[in-house]
């Protein structure tokens, strides 16, 4: 298939539930379990427990309706604000936040967090804390100069973005443009955490192949430095998943803080 015919995450139909089932469901025998779940959970836990990143508000801008990366944040921030550009992703996420029948089951991710933090006796408490903190799921328009207009939200101590820049960016300039918008949501001196896939050109959800922006570690680092960030942690993990659902070569995790 010609890459020009690939669907765009924020422009075409996207099955949020199918995405969760394909990439982050409970399947410990799958190689993607280590890549999509364990790698981000371990790095987020290490980053937050060091104690440098904490505060009142963390804003999340991530792909689909994923929440597994937020279980590590609930102990360090009072409020979690999730921004989504797609109604389908908002509906799917709110189904879990409100504990509705048929919501995606994140028990396996909560257990991974608890095991990583060595507090497996607090599984239910961890889910409750995230649901309590995550009471604001807000629609945004990624193409507006002020993507929150007309809504006003307070500046954040930290912005987390998981895999979203990978799928909304057409090229390097696009990546920088969106990164600048994400950065504008931070307080002076605030932190940003990016998780992404390196050298990815596509990912498949259901029967549809979606566009992916291919970049490497060097570009990701330079993009953050170019926006005035100082990198505090950068980890790269080579892919172990051998499925043909996507063609990424490695995962990247970067935590950085904005110069005041």
List the helices and strands and how they pair.
Blueprint: H1 16-23, H2 31-49, E1 55-60, E2 77-84, H3 87-97, H4 107-117, H5 123-133, E3 136-139, E4 156-162, H6 164-168, H7 172-183, E5 186-198, E6 202-205, E7 208-211, H8 217-226, E8 229-238, E9 250-258
Parallel strand pairs: 1-2, 1-4, 2-3, 4-5
Antiparallel strand pairs: 5-9, 6-7, 8-9
Helix pairs in contact: 2-4
Counted by DSSP, the helix tally is 8
Largest sheet entry: 7 strands, mixed
- Span of the ends, CA to CA: 46 Å
Q: What series of H and E elements makes up the topology?
A: HHEEHHHEEHHEEEHEE
Radius of gyration: 17 Å
Mean pLDDT: 90
Instruction: Identify the strand order in the major beta sheet.
Output: 3-2-1-4-5-9-8
Which ranges are low-confidence, i.e. pLDDT below 50, for 5 or more consecutive residues?
A: none
The number of E-state strands comes to 9
Q: What spatial form do the alpha-carbon principal axes imply?
A: globular
Q: Output the structural class.
A: alpha/beta
Fraction of residues in helix: 25-40%
Beta-strand percentage?
25-35%
